[in-house]
Each structure stands twice: as structure tokens, then as C-alpha cells.
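Hi support team,

I submitted a single chain yesterday and got back a structure, but I'm not sure I'm reading the C-alpha cell output correctly. Could someone confirm the output below corresponds to the sequence I sent? I've pasted both exactly as they appear in my results page.

Thanks,
R.
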Amino acid sequence: MRWVVARALTIALTSLILVFVSVFALSITEQASLERILFEVVSAFGTVGLSMGMTVHLTVCGKLVIMCVMFLGEIGPLTIAFSF
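Hi R., thanks for writing in. Yes, this is the structure output for that exact sequence:
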């Protein structure tokens, strides 16, 4: 039972770290509010398909960050955790 809880915490922590690092990277490269950046990153990670219209105006670096977040969100945090 303790192993299941530890695995769940690892997956959740890995996902949170990925979201926070992505938000930090976008806040450096983009001129937008933290609320809009956080919405874009969480939407990309969850592969929801929602946007506040900010994706079109991202720099190349910002688009690469969003693409990586979308890819990692698509393969899933569980797969990421098992790869380590």
C-alpha cells in the first residue's frame, strides 16, 4: 500500500514540476500575464484544446515549450514516471 501512495505522489510531483518549469520558461520568454500563461500551460499539459488566443502570438521559444508540454501531457505522467 505504501508503494502505491509513493508512486502516486511521484507522478503528481513530476506533473507539477513540469507545469511550474514550463510556466517559468514562458514567463521569461513571453510578455503576458501569469494567469494567461498558466492557463495555456495547464491546457496544453491536459491536452484539453482550450486556449486564450495566446498561442498564436508566442515566440518560437514559447511555441517549443508548449509543444513539449503537449507531447509530455499526451504520453502521460505515468509513462514519464516509469521511464525514470
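A quick pointer for reading it: Residues 2-29 form the longest helix (28 residues). Let us know if anything else looks off.

Best,
Support desk
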